[in-house]
Amino acid sequence: MVVAFVALLCATPIVLSALPASSSGLKPAELVRRVLGSGARAHEGLIEVTGSLGLPDLPGLDEATGPLHGTSRMRSWYDGTRRWRLAELSTTGERDYLSNGDSFDIWDYEQNQYTRIAGHPAVRLPNATDLTPPALARRLLKLVRAQDKLTTLKPRRVAGRSADGLRVTAADPDTTVGAVDVWSDPSTGVPLEVRVVSRGTARPALTTRFLEFAPKRPAAKDVAPRPARGLPRGTVDAPDLLSRLVTFTNLRLPDRLTGREALPGTASVASIRGYAGGFGSLAVAPLPPRYGQQLVGAAQEAGAALTPLRPPRGRGGEYLMLTTPLLNAMLFHSDAGPTFLLVGAVRPEVLTAAAGELAS
Amino acid sequence: MIRTELVKMLRRPRTWVSLLLLCGLPGLVAAFLGVTKVAPPAGQGPAFLAAVLSNGTLYPAAALAMVLPLFLPVSVAVVGGDAVAGEAGSGMLRYLLLRPVGRTRLLVAKLAALTGFVLVAVVAVTVSSYAVGIAVFGAKPASAVTGASLVTSMSGTGLTTPQVLLRLACAMLYVGVSMLGVGAIALFLSTVTDSPLGAALGALAALVTSQILVSLDAAASVHPYLPTRYWLAWIDFFRAPVLWHDIGRGLALQAVYVAVFLAAAWANFATRDITA
C-alpha cells in the first residue's frame, strides 16, 4: 500500500507533463508574422532564463553578461510597448525596470536606489528586459533573412498551455547561431519559450521561458507600483556604461564593415555602431583609453591571451578574443591608439577581419 | 500520549540548548552589526541583513535567513533522529511498547513532538530576534521612508507595521513547514536504525546532497523534487505583489516528503522486530 502511494505521488508530475498539446496549424511564415505582431498583447507571468555562455566578469558589463550564464528568474507585467514592468529576482533582492509612458525608472533593492532615466538613450547595453521570451523572440525573428530555413516544430506545453513551435535554421555560415526555436501562445501569438542553439550543437546555449503565463491586462498597481515615500532618488542621462561611453568617444566608425552595412538611426552616436548581417550582425564600440585598459586587464585575468594582428594593409594592433558557444567578443587595441570592443554572434574570424578593417 | 511526548521534549535539556544556540546566532550577529554598523555588500550575506541597520523590525527575517541553511535543519534532524532510535538505543523502546500503546500511536506522538519542536524553534527565533532587532536597531521608520510605511518591500513599495508583521508570521510558518520535511526523513531513518546519531547524520546527508544538487545547473531536471529547492521561497512574501509560485510548490513538496517518509516510517516501524 505504501509503495503504491509513493508511486502515485511520483507519477503525478510525469503524467501532468505528458498532457497532449494542440497546434493552431499555422504555417511557419504565418507564425513568424503572428509573433512579430504580438507586441501590443498584454500579459503577465514568471520567467526563467537559463544560459551557458560563460562570459567572464568584465568591469561595467556585468549587468549585460550576468543573465547569460546560470539560471535567473524574472517577473513580467506587460501592458503594451510603453507600459510595463520587469522585476529581476534574486534571493537577496530585486531589480525592477519600470516603463510608464514617457518615464523609465530602475529600482534596485540592494542599492536602495530609485533611478529615473532622463530621455531615451540612443544606445544601451542589453539587460534583463531583452531576455523575456517575447522581447528575445521578436528581436531574433526580425533578423530572419530569406535564405534562413523556417520549419514548424511539434506543439508542446509551456507554462501549462499548448504552444505552437517554430524553428529558424540560420543559413549564414558566419554566424554562431545554429537555430532559434520559438513556442508561442496560439490565442495571442505571445512567445512563451525561446531556445537559441549554437551551430554544431544540440543543446540550447540560451533558453528563456514562462513558468507562469496569463494573457490578461496586468493590474495598474502591479505595472506601476507606488514607491515608498522618501526613497533615495536620482536622475541619470545614461542607464549603463555603453550609453555613458557615447559621450566620451567621438571616433567616426566606417559605414561598412566585413560586408555589413552600418545600421541606420545612430547618427547622433556615430562612435558606436551596429552592422546588420541577420543573425551574423555585430556591434563595435571604441573605448576610452583608461576603460579599455581595464577591460583588457580583466580579460587577461580571465585567461584570454593577447594576439598580434597584422592585416595586409594599414597598421595592425593586438587583440584578445573571448569566445563562447554563441556570443564572441574581441578587445582590439590598434597601433593607432584606440581600443575597440567588437561583439556579435559571429565566428571569431569575422571579428578578426572586422578588426583588420578598423586598423586599416 | 502526545502530551507525554511534548512534555518529555520540553523537559529535555537538549531542547533548550538547541533553542539557545538557534536564538544565539542572530543575537551575536546583531551585536556585531549594532557596534560596527557595517552592513554586508549588496548581493552578499543573508537576505535583509543590510536593511535592518535602519530599522530592526525586519531583523526576524534576517534571522530566519541565517539559521535556515544549517542551524535549524541540524537541530530538527537531531530531534527527529532521536525520536525512535533514541528509545531503542537506550533500551526503552521494548518497554515503551509493553504498555497498551500501539506502534502507530507512538509514531504519531513522536511526530507531534517533532512538529512541536519545529514550531517552538521558529517562533523562538522570530520572537527573540524581533526583540533583539528592536533593541539594537530601533523601530523607527527606515531613514529613507516617510509617511505610514515602516520599511520598503523588495519591490520598493512601502510596508506598514501590520503588513510587516503579517509577512513575518507567514515567513515563520513557511520555514516551519519546510523543516517538517527534514523531520520526516529523520523520523523514518530513526525507525530504521537504533543509533540516533546515525539517523540524524543520514537526514543531514540527504539535505547536503540536495543543497549540492540545487546549486548544480546540470541537475536542473531534478531541482523541483529536491527537499531544499524551495526553502528560500519565504523571501517572496516580501515582494510586491507576493510571488506565490515557489511558495505554493514548496508547501506541496514538503507535504509530499512528509507523506512519503511518514508512510515509510509507519510501514517499517509497524512491521519491525523490536529487540532493543
UniProtKB/TrEMBL annotation, chain B:
Pfam families with a match to the protein in the record: ABC2_membrane_4
Domain of life (superkingdom): Bacteria
Regions that span the bilayer: 62-85, 106-124, 164-189, 195-216, 251-270
UniProt feature coiled coil, ranges: none
Keyword list, A-Z: Membrane, Transmembrane, Transmembrane helix
UniProt key word Transferase: no
Name of the molecule in the record: ABC transporter permease
